Amino acid sequence: MERKAYYAEYIYYQGEMHRDSYLLVQGDRIHGISTHADEEGNTGYTIEHFHNSLIIPGFINTHTHLPMVLFRGMADDLALMDWLKNHIWPAESKWLSEEFAITATELAAAEMIKSGTTTCNDMYFHAGTVASVLKRTGMRAVIGVGVLDFATKFGKNADDYIERAAEFYLKYEKDKLISPALCPHAPYTVKPENFKKCIDFCAKHDVLLCTHLSESPHENAESIQKHGRTPAQLMNDMGALDIKTNLAHCVHINDEEIALFAEKGVNVSHCIQSNMKLGSGFAPVKKMLDACVNVSIGTDGAASNNDLDMIGEMNSIALVHKGLNFDATALSAETVLKMATVNGAKTLDLKRVGELKRGNQADFIVLSFDEPHMTPVFNPLSHLVYSAKSTDITATYVAGQCLMKDRQLKTLDEEKIKDDARRWALKIKNN
């Protein structure tokens, strides 16, 4: 078994900052931390040095739509429903194909690895293709098969989508990097009887149910008009809050619903930049955290963000919620980092990831303090959230495998991927 020791001035291990230490890795697991890589019992390690750097757990992006990176910037400055119905859905209908999904997922993977994301939760079409590409890159992922009421090239109806999900589940139920999930799009695109089928499927197979919830005021108003219930109340009535559930957005939920989420142990994925860009509003994150609701971080798709950068997301979350709450102590740097790591692992029901500690998977990233905007260093975690840029990530590891070092991707051909993406853009622009 390969044994490696990674030195850094700072290592965030088991929720504490360690100085001038070595992260010890054996195979795909973390063995421990030491101030001397060659001390008794720790001999035989190959040593790698990351000077003037911080080692932290890799980021966990709990809500995204990876192939949408090829729609990046296509329909900006529009409200959610206009953006969806008049631009994104027509583009998906025209352009989505396996070839499109391969190029798009490779581009998304390159962006995520270079910005420190080691695990993602994808909710889109072509789940099998997305899974195959991410597995090839070495990334960890929870990938959901989408479900809708209406027919697309991916299914005739909800039953057909769920049947495809069953096939995907059988293929990946025991995979080390890819975990299957089921993703009914939202209560406004999946009627209650079909949503209940999704819930039953997830309960039967013990997989995560991922959906959009209360993203816009329009969504809430429509739900009350049709069902006499808010989306959150409807989900509770159907039993969705009694299984493993990842609810994306939750911008327009009230205090009673927050208390219900806390009681039920619901997971919420906060996508602040997408919510701001689409003018959807601001989720009551501080209230949710104060109520002990597990809140993690998602970027959403790059068509509404317009990137997959978790450092940018953390910065926005920390700053905006301080301003919204008139409280400079709200959502500290450490709290936001936990949202991007430990809380993300809990949201996706992943064991042995999200934290650097003995026995966990060796999913970690390296942040450099070499640039002027990162100098000097008083508090490494504050620098991560308030000063860092994604380009300060110099190395990314998943299960002990190096996916990037010195900003160079190890499992992907970055130049070819960018050329392929540009060709797709020309095709889309000219048709």
Task: Give the DSSP E fraction (strand runs of 2 or more residues).
Answer: 15-25%
Might you state the CATH topology name of the largest domain? TIM Barrel
Strands, total number: 16
CATH hierarchy: architecture of the largest domain? Alpha-Beta Barrel
Q: Identify the CATH homologous superfamily of the largest domain.
A: Metal-dependent hydrolases
End-to-end distance: 53 Å
Explain how this protein is built:
- There is one protein chain.
- The protein has 431 residues and is α/β, with parallel strands linked by helices.
- The protein folds into two domains: 3-57 and 360-399, Urease, subunit C, domain 1 (Roll), CATH 2.30.40; 59-347, Alpha-Beta Barrel (TIM Barrel).
- It has helices at residues 80-95, 98-114, 127-137, 158-172, 192-205, 217-227, 231-238, 255-264, 272-277, 285-290, 310-324, 333-340, 342-347, 380-386, 414-429; strands at 3-13, 16-26, 29-34, 46-57, 59-64, 117-124, 140-147, 178-184, 208-213, 245-249, 267-270, 294-297, 364-368, 393-398, 401-405, 408-409.
- The strands form two sheets. The chain has an eight-stranded mixed sheet, with helices on one face.
- Strand 10 (245-249), helix 8 and strand 11 (267-270) form a beta-alpha-beta unit.
- The chain is globular.
- The model has no long low-confidence stretch (mean pLDDT 95).
